[in-house]
């Protein structure tokens, strides 16, 4: 599959939201139980690091975005990212394309660490991240309960992954 990247635009929200909800519904992507409204999403993510992958007819196949981890100046170069790929587009290089674009855009703005928490059972996401330079740096045991999907009500662990920029000292 050939995909192209572009900046996420407000008009992309219905498709982005659908892919986000699809991930939520699996029970293996996030602790969220439903997608936020556009304003909440927009206000919590850095606008210059939001991308969508689209196919040749403009259908959105996946998206990525980052949020700052802290308002403290010492952590100004650390973000937490989200990445979601539509079920029909998984395993076709869309995630790789999105993570590479995210690394490029964050490094260009002096961000030295991208982090994420991933459920240990989400093996495809773990493989994708590790192939793109993310390392597992810790495990948070029984950190929260999932509220939807096949694991609803269960305490879940997460693995903390991070990618340190090789170009920012």
Can you give a write-up of this model?
- With 169 residues, the chain is α+β, with helices and mostly antiparallel strands.
- The protein has 4 helices and 7 strands, in the order E-H-H-E-E-E-H-E-H-E-E.
- It has helices at 13-26, 38-44, 94-108, 123-131, and strands spanning 4-7, 51-54, 60-68, 78-85, 113-118, 135-145, 155-164.
- A 7-stranded mixed β-sheet has the order 1-2-3-4-5-7-6.
- The longest helix is centred in the middle third of the chain and has 15 residues, at 94-108.
- It is globular.
- The chain starts with a strand and ends in a 5-residue tail after the last strand.
The helix tally amounts to 4
Spans of at least 5 consecutive residues with low confidence: none
Q: Give the class-level CATH name.
A: Alpha Beta
Strand arrangement, largest sheet? 1-2-3-4-5-7-6
Number of domains: 1
Q: Provide the succession of SSEs.
A: EHHEEEHEHEE
Per DSSP, what share of the residues sits in E-state strands of 2 or more residues? Answer: 25-35%
Taking the alpha carbons of the first and last residues, their distance comes to 36 Å
Q: Find the CATH superfamily.
A: Gcn5-related N-acetyltransferase (GNAT)
- Percentage of residues assigned to helices: 25-40%
Using only CA atoms, what is the Rg? 15 Å
Give the overall average pLDDT. Answer: 93
User: Mind describing the biggest β-sheet?
Assistant: 7 strands, mixed
The backbone outline, from C-alpha atoms, is: globular
In total, the number of strands is 7
Query: What is the CATH architecture descriptor?
Result: 3-Layer(aba) Sandwich
Which structural class fits the helix and strand makeup? alpha+beta
CATH topology: Aminopeptidase
